[in-house]
Amino acid sequence: MLCWGNASYGQLGLGGIDEEIVVVPRKCEYFNGKRVSDVGCGRRHTAFLLDDGTVYTCGCNDLGQLGHEKSRKKPEQVVALDAQIIVALSCGESHTLALNDKGQIFSWGLGSDGQLGLNNFEECIRVPRNIKSLSDVQIAQVACGYWHSIALARGGQIFSWGQNRYSQLGLGITGQSISTPQMVQSLQAIPFSQISAGGAHSFALTFSGAVFGWGCNKFGQLGVNDTNDRCFPTLLKSLRSQRVIYVSCGEDHTAVLTKEGGVFTFGAGGYGQLGHNSTNHEINPRKVFELMGNVVTQIACGRQHTLAFTPACEKMDSFGLGGNGQLGTRSTCNRKSPAPVKGPWATSSTAEEYDSEQSCFVRRIYAGGDQSFAHYCTTNVSMLIRGS
């Protein structure tokens, strides 16, 4: 596991290092010899899922978001989940969701907006609890916004709960927070492949590549050609001709990846996080010109930065806010267009030119808050994993 960005709360899992920021990818020694299958990045905390279904967390724990008692600068196992085989997780501003192999969700951390789905508004839950109101439904995916949560059921239904100040629950109403999962009725009978949540906006992607967005749209982060919030899921008509395969959300911006390897971004651009060599906001999806010609296979949005991975060129690019080292460019400057992340990236085609101990075959990239991660292996087991 390589990590870079803000380390001030221990959210990179590097232990008690002197630096507050890490400006170039560094190996997280804790996971040597362990197989990581998922990473959730919160604002100031991180959760790691191992292949054996165990969960480790590190970083800020002021609201119980680590699922154990104290703040930790090194990953520590969430022992309350010992009896569970966890298969996916997600982190919000200060809360965490974990999904087990039976399709049940466990939640912990900040609950004052109902984002834990536990039918209460308790400020702080430090031990993971099962969301019992979803016990009859098998959940396939979870996604945390800052103060809201969404879940995709294996049957295709989408559920949402938590803060609804910006209509980010997609229920046709605005305002009052909701502490128990509600089905997003307007999306029934549509088969979805992925869900994603940003600061206060949400997305759902169909198997055919249609993209629906709802919630806060102050900066155009829904990509629907205006800046009005949406209380119902709205189809992004401008992406209908593209075969979208993945959606990632930052605090106020969105990036989508197409089957052909193209990247479109929209929403807040004040730090360059859209990659268009400007700090303008974009209310419509706009292709990142400097990534054209490359087949990007993975994207990840942090709070105000974006990562894109192009295995054929052995490179990872980053753009946006850089003040905490989250771009991995050896500097703390913001970047308005894609800049290379300084790392030992390798591809199958060039593997023989590298010392296998030094070259990293990237399996998956992650970003959130002001931190970034790349999960890699040092030998090319087979083909690089394409897409997220």
Automatic annotation (TrEMBL):
Question: What Gene3D superfamilies does its record include?
Answer: Regulator of chromosome condensation 1/beta-lactamase-inhibitor protein II (2.130.10.30)
Q: Which SUPFAM superfamilies match?
A: RCC1/BLIP-II (SSF50985)
Coiled-coil region? none
Going by the UniProt record, its keywords in alphabetical order are: Guanine-nucleotide releasing factor, Repeat
PROSITE patterns, per the entry: RCC1_2, RCC1_3
- Which residues does the annotated region (Disordered) include? 330-350
In the record for this protein, the RCC repeats are positioned at: 1-52, 53-102, 103-155, 156-208, 209-260, 261-312
Whether Repeat counts among this entry's keywords is yes
Keyword DNA damage in the entry? The reply is: no
RCC1-like domain ranges (all copies) = 2-373
Q: Name one Pfam family in it.
A: WD40_RLD
Checking PANTHER family in the record gives: REGULATOR OF CHROMOSOME CONDENSATION
What protein is this chain from?
A: E3 ubiquitin-protein ligase herc4
**Originating species:** Ilyodon furcidens (goldbreast splitfin)
Q: What is the lineage of its organism?
A: Eukaryota, Metazoa, Chordata, Craniata, Vertebrata
